[in-house]
Amino acid sequence: MSPAIRYDFRSDTVTRPGPQIRAAMATAEVGDDVLGDDPTVNRLEATVCEILGKESALFASSGTQANLIALMSHCARGDE
């Protein structure tokens, strides 16, 4: 029986990328997702649309960001 593998995802200062991850990052396709130029984000959004049967999708990198997007789509700054 192999020993249990433990992962610590508390912070990027705790878990550091190894050589394979660094190589993947160095050769990754990149672009500006705000301008619609990031092919990875575009593929992710298209895949989610297809899975959920929706017309479009928006990637939010955290729950806090998603909540802020939802609030700001319904309220103006300064609303109570």
TrEMBL record:
Molecular function (Gene Ontology), one example: L-allo-threonine aldolase activity
GO BP annotations listed: glycine biosynthetic process; L-threonine catabolic process
Keywords, ordered alphabetically: Pyridoxal phosphate
GO cellular component, one term: cytosol
Domain Aromatic amino acid beta-eliminating lyase/threonine aldolase stretches: 8-80
Names of the cofactor(s): pyridoxal 5'-phosphate
Superkingdom, natural source: Bacteria
Assembly with partners or alone: Homotetramer.
Similarity section: Belongs to the threonine aldolase family.
Name by which UniProt lists this protein: Aromatic amino acid beta-eliminating lyase/threonine aldolase domain-containing protein
Native species: Paraburkholderia polaris
